[in-house]
Amino acid sequence: EIRTPLTAICGFSGLISSPKIDNSKRESFAEIIKTSSDKLLEIVTDILTISSLETGQEQINIQKVCINSIIAELLAEFKQQVKNKQISIYAIQPLADDRTKIYTDKQKLTIVLRSLIANAIKFTNQGFIEFGYNLIEENLEFYVKDTGVGIKPELQEKIFESFRQADLTTSKNYGGTGLGLSIAKGYIKLLEGKIWVISSENKGTAFFLTIPYRPINELMKEEKPGNKNNNGYILVAEDEELNFYLIEEYLNQFGFKFIHAKNGLEAIKLCQINQEIKLVLMDIKMPVMSGDEAALIIKKTNPKLPIIALTAYAMNEEKEKYGIFFDDYITKPIDEQYLKKIITKHSE
Q1: Residue spans in the chain of domains classed CATH 3.40.50.2300
Q2: Using CA atoms, how far apart are residues 143 and 196, in angstroms rounded to an integer?
Q3: Residue 151: strand, helix, or coil
Q4: What are the helix (H) ranges across the chain?
Q5: Phi and psi (nearest 5°) for 209?
Q6: pLDDT higher than threshold 90 for residue 230
Q7: 226-347, which class in CATH?
């Protein structure tokens, strides 16, 4: 792994100064040298990191962190990387932002999650990648799931060892030093957590890791009476960021707690795993899965959960077409007082 980029750097450094090559080739060689240098730096950094972990010199930097922000940033980053692959990627954030503001090492946690997601993309050619977290007792349990090539049972413990990969063909076909998971294990151990894997060969892999749940405000574990509406959470399914920002401001003013989903499929998953959701505000036109499709599926398993359409489909024929899927129907632009009235009506 070290020799490959080093060979490119040494070889093209010699060629770039030759008077026999034209400017276009010179620019191409310069780009190869830069890319190879970045790769070499990445390898050396991994080697230094694993050395620091094994000798007990690695330090942690505990600070205030918003977990939902980390998840959103990673989703935005990796969405660009899967554009040319036949896979979809989505994230699940079951807690409201205020409950995900905790004390931990942001850099190390982000490095671990980024490494796991990058691996999932590398080893998945079709299907999907899902990542997110759940609050389980006193821990946040993160996960990264894929529908990729999977890992043989006898190798699932060995992949966490330094310079180890699933098998010899992995390095040949996909590259890599075999240090990523070893570093991830070391970092999570420093953060007082655990990391493990569940995988089926040719079916997919799921990595799990835990860190202690240490909210910035200890009282966030249980909302103070009178501070926020205590009738559970409102799930807002809205893919347009500006629209969500407006709804977020309204709900904050009303005193309601809320969770955000960016498409119908995310809304379904959040309703399945979060029993505190007591009402859904559902946009209709969304990517991955539309709001009316999602509402139909949610109602099959939770028929009493109020689902309110919050949509730009305002024509009478549109209301007739989509209204049958919802308990109420609010059209955009949103009237603040009418929104509050409808939410209050279905929250009683």
Answers
A1: 226-347
A2: 10
A3: coil
A4: 3-16, 23-54, 67-81, 106-122, 168-174, 180-190, 241-254, 264-273, 291-301, 316-322, 336-347
A5: -150, 150
A6: no
A7: alpha beta
Mean pLDDT within 135-145? 94
**Comma-separated ranges of CATH 3.30.565.10 domains in the chain:** 63-212
pLDDT digits (tens, 9 = 90+) for 61-79: 999 999 999 999 999 899 8
Whole-Å CA distances, 320 to 165, 215, 237, 295, 326: 56, 45, 21, 16, 11
- Whether this prediction's pTM lies above 0.85 is answered by no
Give the CA count within 13 Å in the CB-facing half-sphere of 232. Answer: 18
Residue 138 is classified by DSSP as T
- Single-letter amino acid, residue 155: L
Calculated CA dihedral for residues 180, 186, 191, 192, nearest 10 degrees: 130
Distance of alpha carbon 112 from its chain centroid, rounded?
12
- Strands 86-92 and 126-136, sheet pairing: parallel
Largest CA distance in the chain: 81
Please check whether residue 107 is in contact with residue 60, taking contact to mean a CB–CB distance below 8 angstroms.
no
What is the distance between the alpha carbons of residues 147 and 128, in angstroms, rounded to a whole number?
6
Q: What is the pLDDT of residues 28-52, one digit of tens each?
A: 999 999 999 998 998 898 899 999 9
Determine the pLDDT at residue 198: 94
Beta bridge pairs of residue 260: 236
pLDDT beyond 80 at 223: no
